Structures are given as C-alpha cells and as structure tokens.
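Please, structure for the following, as tokens.
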Amino acid sequence: QVQLVESGGGLVQAGGSLRLSCAASGRTFSRLAMGWFRRVPGKEREFVAAITRGAGLPYYADFVKGRFTISRDNAKNTVYLQMNSLKPEDTAVYYCAATYGSSWLGDRDYAYWGQGTQVTVSS
C-alpha cells in the first residue's frame, strides 16, 4: 500500500508560481511512476504531468508544456510539480498519483491517489 500526501496548494495571482509536493510512504518509491492530475468542478479529472521510475523521464499535457516542471527526489520519497506562469484556467484540485505499472498517461493507470490540494489562480 502506498499513501500519498500533497502539499503546496494555495491562492496565487495570474503569472505567479507555486510548487506542489507529494510525499509517498514506503520503501518502494523509486519503483513507482508518479503523476499529477487535476480536476475542475463539473469536469473530468485530467492528466497534467508524469515522471517515470528509473531515468525519471517527464511527460506533460500540452497545456502545461513550458510552464510546469515535474521532478522527483527518490531519497525523500517526494515528487514535485513546479508551476510557473499560472493562469486562471489552472485553478483546480491537483492530485498526486502513483503506479507500479508501465503506463502513466491516464488516470486508470494509477492505483494510488492523494487527497488533493486546491490551487486557485486569480485574474
């Protein structure tokens, strides 16, 4: 069982930055691919970014490329999402997710989820 705890959400003005963190329990973090998703009320949860185990290759949704950066620190069992140039449309609850599997672009690929952290971007 993997437990995930997100932190770092909050209120920021458009153009500002936030860094989300997700701390994972257990001793197998390096074997997990990690992802970030977000959900706006009334809409389906959508993929934001993922980072593979091993080489730590990043993948991004088109709407965050060049603005968001995903990274991981295996020594700290933590994955990060650095969000720059934030826009009001980035307002959502952001979720961290983890998988031991070999696919990581869809929410069905992930078995473990955090509780979510609210990000609000004001115009």
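The mean pLDDT is 96. The longest strand covers residues 92-99.
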